[in-house]
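Q: Please design a sequence for this.
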């Protein structure tokens, strides 16, 4: 691997806090630029920052949510209202992202609570990605608020990597009004790990020679893609830090964790060969779930919930011109026990009525019909590009009726796209307590954000 040698004096010319960040990152006297340079850009407390920036810069409000104890959360009366984002002052009260809102209010009775605005968040994400695409040769969106950018070979345009990162950080702040953290490294994994270091509004590096000092002392749960279940298994093996994992016997990891053990061992050693891809990977499945406002204890209501979920899943399938061959129904009881059951379909379909039929059949095999349910979900997999059905002599399926249903779904999709989702709804949802299109995604997030960004 070839390197370009850059003087530390050259690096120090960037303005607005760069010198402080250099000191915080313990920059070496000589900075080396590897052949591959990857940035990870992460909006700080995205939902809250985007809401605050909009209220201050667009609506002209004097109060900045980022400067007071505040959170973004859903309806206070809803059982699934959790903290989606928090301000730094709120964090000082011990408030955590993902915890129930009522617990956060107990910690801080004066907490300012604002409801999420997904339409605004989609627009902020688009603008952030738009700036990055003007600068970087390749940009890959990981989530609504996280992006990887391949900055390889841009030194002659923007200067050394750290200087270029500060240029991007400042441009986003000046043009969009919110802060980001930027991680700089030679691969996506280390750039992500660097970006998750001290926040907010910082630039950090984590090149391979910095891994022993910066990454290995971290708890193993901090390693990208290591979840709570894996953390427990690693702790039972005596592995507590990322350094412990890097030094572990890879054959033992492979024996106990399979291929995943081999993958996280390479990650712990800072190795990642995945390239930044400007083309998003194809979906492997579609799903929606809902935490119910009240427990469901009868099959009629449960099937009505499934229909509302299948409405949104079917719409997304048809939007992407996909059909599915497998239906999975997931439920969580009032006692927080989780169950799931899968059903193979006799072909591939994107017809809402067919999805609903399969979901109800699966639910009847999964649930006794009276145990209280607090959460329900559906997921479809085994995707194909065409709709097809297998017929036999004893089949009750009418191909003409299926084609009519498919055309009806397409017409309804067009109407909802033009006039809103509430313009057409099934009669069984009239005067009912179940919303006619339910799921984990808000309306604004069901409009193909990742395709338009």
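A: Design:
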């Amino acid at each position: 691997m070839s390197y370009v040698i850059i003087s530390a004096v050259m690096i120090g010319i960037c303005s607005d806090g760069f010198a402080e960040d250099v000191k915080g990152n313990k920059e070496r006297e000589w900075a080396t630029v590897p052949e591959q340079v990857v940035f990870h850009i992460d909006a700080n407390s995205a939902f809250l920052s985007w809401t605050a920036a909009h209220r201050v810069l667009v609506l002209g409000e004097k109060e900045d949510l980022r400067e007071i104890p505040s959170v973004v959360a859903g309806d206070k009366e809803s059982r699934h209202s959790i903290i989606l984002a928090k301000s730094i002052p709120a964090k000082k009260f011990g408030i955590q992202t993902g915890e129930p809102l009522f617990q956060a209010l107990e910690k801080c009775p004066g907490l300012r609570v604002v409801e999420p605005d997904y339409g605004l968040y989609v627009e902020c994400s688009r603008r952030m990605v738009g700036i990055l695409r003007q600068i970087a040769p390749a940009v890959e969106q990981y989530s609504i608020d996280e992006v990887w950018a391949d900055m390889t070979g841009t030194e002659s345009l923007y200067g050394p990597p750290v200087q270029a990162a500060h240029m991007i950080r400042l441009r986003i702040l000046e043009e969009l009004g919110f802060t980001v953290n930027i991680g700089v490294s030679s691969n996506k994994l280390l750039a992500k790990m660097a970006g998750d270091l001290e926040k907010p509004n910082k630039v950090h590096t984590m090149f391979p020679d910095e891994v022993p000092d910066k990454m290995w002392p971290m708890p193993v749960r901090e390693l990208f893609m290591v979840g709570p279940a894996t953390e427990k298994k690693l702790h039972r093996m005596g592995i507590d830090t990322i350094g412990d994992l890097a030094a572990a016997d890879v054959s033992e990891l492979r024996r106990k964790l399979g291929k995943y053990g081999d993958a996280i061992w390479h990650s712990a050693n800072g190795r990642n060969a995945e390239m930044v891809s400007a083309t998003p990977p194809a979906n492997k499945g579609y799903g929606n779930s809902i935490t119910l406002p009240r427990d469901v204890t009868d099959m009629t209501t449960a099937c009505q919930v499934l229909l509302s979920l299948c409405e949104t899943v079917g719409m997304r399938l048809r939007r992407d011109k996909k059909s599915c061959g497998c239906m999975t129904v997931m439920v969580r009881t009032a006692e927080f026990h989780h169950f799931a059951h899968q059903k193979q379909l006799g072909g591939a379909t994107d017809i809402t009525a067919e999805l609903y039929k399969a979901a109800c059949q699966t639910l009847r095999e999964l649930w006794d019909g009276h145990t209280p349910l607090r959460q329900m979900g559906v997921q479809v997999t085994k995707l194909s590009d065409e709709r097809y059905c297998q017929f036999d002599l004893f089949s009750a399926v009418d191909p003409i009726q299926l084609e009519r249903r498919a055309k009806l779904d397409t017409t309804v999709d067009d109407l909802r796209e033009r006039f809103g989702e509430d313009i057409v709804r099934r009669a069984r949802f009239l005067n009912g307590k179940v919303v006619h299109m339910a799921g984990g995604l808000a309306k604004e997030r069901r409009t193909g954000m990742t395709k338009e960004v």
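Q: Thanks. Anything notable?
A: The longest strand covers residues 338-349. The chain is about 40% helix and 20% strand.
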